Amino acid sequence: MVFSTPTLSDLIRTAENGISSAFYGVVSVLRKGVLKVLARVFAGLVHLLFMLLRLMWRNVFISTADVESLKNFGTDFGIPNKPDACAGGYAIIKASSASVEIEQGVVLVSDSGIEFEVVADTILTGSEDGTPVKVLALESGDEGNLPAGIVLSFRDGVPEDVDEVVSVGDEGLNGGVKIEVEVDGAVEYWGETVEEYRGRLLDRRRNQPCGGSGADYKSWAERFSQVSRCVVEECYPAAGAVRCVLCHFDDADSVTVSSDAVQEVSNYIKSDDRRPITADVSVVSCKNKVLNLAIKVYPNNENIHASVRTALRNALRSYSPGDTVRADALTVKLLESSVAEKIAVTSVLGQQAVVLDRAGAEMPVVGDIAWSEYSV
Fold first, then answer.
1. What is the spatial distance between Cα 348 and Cα 334, in angstroms, rounded to a whole number?
2. Same domain for 271 and 304?
3. To bridge 15 with a disulfide, which of 39, 122, 245, 314 should be the other Cys (CB 3.0-4.6 Å)?
């Protein structure tokens, strides 16, 4: 039976009727003005009790629980919310001679003012290509996520025998996330939204730990802030093997995961406390499969284009390596989730269907879109 909450007006009316039937008859005991005051007082108290019961009812279920109750569920399941994270990666630093040392604590700054700290003492090789030096943003948040090739500078002066031009490595600086969440009246910073956390808890409720099932590997991997989705491939590439393909979704079109994050997830999953001892486990990042598309749309304007691109990005994230991306299937998904009145995906990479390479762990991302008018 669904729990329903009567309105305050309904409770006042019920209280008035009850008091009237009890105190009015042959002899009037209460004045009508007093009756209305008492009815409102009693109805107000009962309404507060109903509201409390309603809150308790909603917090029984993960799907309707508030943030505080979600954290309690997470404590019971051993699944905390993802913490906020600082962007990290490698900066390429060149030196005029070999054996020059960059000390831990040296700070690099981007043109936008984001500061990155060298996390460990590193000896530069002196090669023309430079030496990768691991750095970490001083503050959490996606402002520190920078693409490869961005130029950084030394905040406190250039060290001796070191080139003043520093660039971000091939994998970029990524992993930074900071989402504001209010918990018990206080502001906390998470590495995921409340609804994303609710989804992970629902997955845990629906898929109880089974000593190494696909749901177990998925849960182990997705507890890390740089992993938005883990595709678990059983008996791949051989019998008794498990491959976990990691994906990271943010506002950028790339869905790959950094090598450091892959190693961190791999160490966690392969711990003796988790994976079955007979399983041959590999953890890899997905590879971007850029899809150039031709789309007919109506109305054909910038606002519709932005809506379709967002819907397309979300639709492509549901695919897995080895799947086939079909133009007609994308059309159906975009009709459901975009604001376009008419839409048709006419080609994907010049074809009606594209197969994602399973061995290469390919995941589709949005490339160039050729827009045209949909005739109505």
1. 14
2. no
3. 39
Q: What percent of the chain has pLDDT over 90?
A: 71
Nearest CA-CA partner of 201 in 19, 83, 78, 360: 78
Q: What is the pLDDT of residues 146-186, one digit of tens each?
A: 999 999 999 999 998 899 999 999 989 999 999 999 998 89
Final residue belonging to a domain, choices 139, 168, 197 = 168
Look at residue 280 and tell me if it is in a domain.
Answer: yes
Tokens linked to 294 = 């031709």
pLDDT computed for residue 26 by the predictor:
47
64 domain residue, yes or no: no
275 and 318 together in one domain: no
**CA-based nearest residue to 163, from 135, 125, 119:** 125
From 360, 349, 290, select the one nearest 321 (Cα to Cα): 360
276, 297: one domain: no
What are the tens digits of pLDDT across the range 319-336? Answer: 999 999 999 999 999 999
Three-state secondary-structure class, residue 326: strand
Confidence of residue 2 (pLDDT cuts 50, 70, 90): low
Please list, in sequence order, all residues whose beta carbon lies within 8 angstroms of the beta carbon of residue 1, skipping any fewer than 6 positions away: none
